[in-house]
Amino acid sequence: MGMAEEIVTTQSYEKLCSDVLYSNESVRFVGLVNNKSDLLHSVQKKDLDPLLDDDEIKISINYSLERWRKAQNLSFRLGHEKLTLTEYEHVTLISIPYDGKLLLISTQPTIHYHEMIQAIISVIPPWEN
Amino acid sequence: MENATVSYVQLLREDLAIFRVVPEGPFPEYKAGQFLTLGLPVKSENNRVISRAYSIASHPENKKYIEFVIRWVRKPYPGRLTTAMFNLKEGDKIQWRKANGTLTINDKLPNGEPDKRRIVCIGGGTGLAPFVSFAQHLHDVGDKRELVVLHGASYVDELSYRERLTDLELESIDRGADKWNFKYRAAISRPQEWLNRSWTGQVGRVEQFLRARPGQISPLEELVGEKITQENTMFYICGWQGTIDGTLDFLGNKEFVTERNKREDGSYEVKFESYG
Predict the structure, then answer these.
(1) Are A37 and B192 inside 8 Å of each other by CB?
(2) pLDDT in tens, B40-62
(3) The domain containing residue A44 runs over which residues?
(4) Which of A3, A94, B11, B54 suits a disulfide with A105, CB 3.0-4.6 Å?
(5) Mean pLDDT in residue range A71-97
(6) How large is the ipTM?
């Protein structure tokens, strides 16, 4: 990847994460990881107490990637994974495959998932699956 | 095909396992580094027997079983045979066909003299299997040549024979290199991943062992304590095509020659086998 292309790509990651973060008031954090666990970019709302420390964030990313990789093993029958949602007591974690990467989103616990997910998906640009 | 019984299954991770099979009838003859063709009836193929060659990880002196380390192929579609193999239980039957393959140890040079060069084995993923066979064979026959086994994997839990090969190296240290001269090192290609957080060894692809950083010698040369040349080292490589290409790219630049492109006098310094 050339430097100019890299800058454009980084800018697009920043915009994507920012757009998702502000797509719905419940979204707390957005990160984009590649399939090697590299956190390419992340953003979070200000004035929120973090639920995980740095090591726990690495564990959480690892679990999300592991689950995503394993889910792909059945995609030849089930089709490509589009979204996974895990509801905890204190937070809801959403992961969305995006262009060979994984978009990781955490939100406040909410019952209005459909509305929130529609808002998130509406700001994610289309890509070749 | 001949019949055998599965005597041992050890799942190392979801997609990686060690299998041992005990043939019925006479134990098959084979050389270290060769492969055996295994076959199973596959339900989705109307119970037609699907077969595929797998490198043998055990050594010819072991007449109790034949061992394999096999990855469950899952992409883009689950492999028919490996899916069936990962459903096997100890006591199940399996079929086999005689050993074959040319990735065997050269004991002599083209002029008939003994090949006393150091042996460096480079295995990517399950491409380590023939070199586990090499190590155990050379150990059991008391071969005095220096043997270096280099293994490349993405994750630490894919270092399938780390314990056995480490034990062989410790024995080499205990007994002295004049009696058993063995070294084992591994490289992890995804050191930043959480699962690999405790890894302190070589990072990157396994062929990185051959590459010197500016102003420095290569990790392999540091390990063996001298410059690697055609005169003192013979390379054996097994793995995916990317591992073969990456290693040959480096060795070719140093004017090492492969068996498939040997010189007029029959000499060469690299043998390789690709599985993919």
Answers:
(1) yes
(2) 999 889 999 999 999 999 999 99
(3) 23-122
(4) A94
(5) 94
(6) 0.82
Peptide bond into B23 cis (omega under 30): no
Structural element, H or E, at residue A28 = strand A27-33
Q: Which amino acid is at B126?
A: T
Integer Cα distance of B28 and B21 in angstroms: 12
Could you tell me if A74 lies within 8 Å of chain B, comparing CB atoms? no
- Which of B74, B80, B83, B194 best tests the A interface by mutation, with the highest count of A CBs <10 A? B194
CB-CB neighbors (< 8 A) of B76 in chain A: 76
Q: How distant is the Cα of B154 from the closest Cα of chain A, in angstroms?
A: 10
Q: Work out the average pLDDT over A41-69.
A: 91
What are the E-state strand segments in chain B? 2-13, 16-23, 35-42, 48-55, 66-71, 93-100, 118-124, 147-153, 182-188, 202-203, 233-239, 270-274
Average pLDDT, chain B: 95
Per residue in B105-116, pLDDT tens? Answer: 999 999 999 999
CA A114, CA B230: separation in Å to the nearest integer?
66
pLDDT at residue A127, rounded to an integer: 77
**Chain-chain contact of A59 with B75 (C-beta, under 8 angstroms):** no
Instruction: With 0.95 as the threshold, say if the pTM is over it.
Output: no
Instruction: Reply yes or no on domain B118-274 having CATH 3.40.50.80.
Output: yes
